[in-house]
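Running this now, will post back.
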Amino acid sequence: MITGSTKNKFQGGSFMRVRRKGWWLQVVSLLVVFSLAATGVLAAPGGKMNTGRGQGPGKAKPWKEKAAIEFRDAGRHWAMENIRAMSLLGAINGYPDGSFKPEEPVKVQEALKMVVSLLSEEGAAGQGEAAELQGLLESRFKNVDTWAQAYAGQAIRMGLMPSTGMELLNGNKPAKRYEVAVWLVGALGLEPDTGMAQAELPFNDTPAIPAWARGYIALALQEGLLEGYPDNTFRPNQPVKRGEMATLLGRFAACRQLVAGFHVITGTVTQVDLDAPAITIVRRVYGLMPRAAGDEGEDKASVSQAVYGQVTVVPAKTVPLDPDAFIYLDGARAELGDIQAGYWATVITDKEGLGILVSARIQAPPGPRWPLQPEPGRGRNR
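Update: finished.
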């Protein structure tokens, strides 16, 4: 299995990540967002909403319409926690019959829609003139269903797909592992430099990875988006299942501070206020860009200005909680009062700044990684 030291195994790469000019992302926080899969955080029995203080549900909230999606075939799936989180963030949807079909391959156009939806509140809005959109699609795709064309066009505009190398895609074909890796790296605004493109990947099946894509795979490994399998393979052409895609989206969310209007806050709990209700967290920020960018009203000097890898502790932040927020502790439904100072927690806030999900662990994860739960009987798909 490829571990956190993967990047030290690359040979011939300078490990420089080239950020596209004009990319809107100023600071990427490598957070252990949600701590979901290692603890089954969102796989609550029956999927009912936890009230936080045991007072029952309040008035309907817009975010609850997304959060309330219950997929009839995913309740016990190994990726349920990530499926639920991505549903909450508006990145994924199920089928009209109420299923999610986590074991089915995700189609190219479905995967791109998920990424675009996670990146932007507007989704495929602003798709432009029909002629311009058609030109974009013809430059990257053999065919795309009508419903997915705007998302595919937006994916191209956002830089998810490189301008050279990648073959024309069939929107209805299963998305391959190496393709999804390339899209997620592109969504982070990264592209490999010459040295990284020539890096020697530590997989037995590296020759099966298209040469032009190897630099992207190296970046995906460095950013913690994917890992190899225990048999030292990457399996680049293996189709990505829908449940796996939800997990990869979770990995991607861990590399961003803002996700489609939602804010993700991760760190050590210092105080819990049951009356407010509210939770106070001291955060750890993993700086990537050599310039600071903090929350609105927050002292920017408190945010790391160092390159990727240096940890900066940001002053404590108190987050008011929605009375109907989801509360989880080590993978089980819990009450807010079960969370104590010193626990590790992640809070997702809505557009109003209210915490709508609290995922806590008694012990903090070992570093800026998203600990993923493998499907029983197989290696971690990281």
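Confidence is low (pLDDT under 50) at residues 1-68, 285-311, 367-382. More later if anyone needs it.
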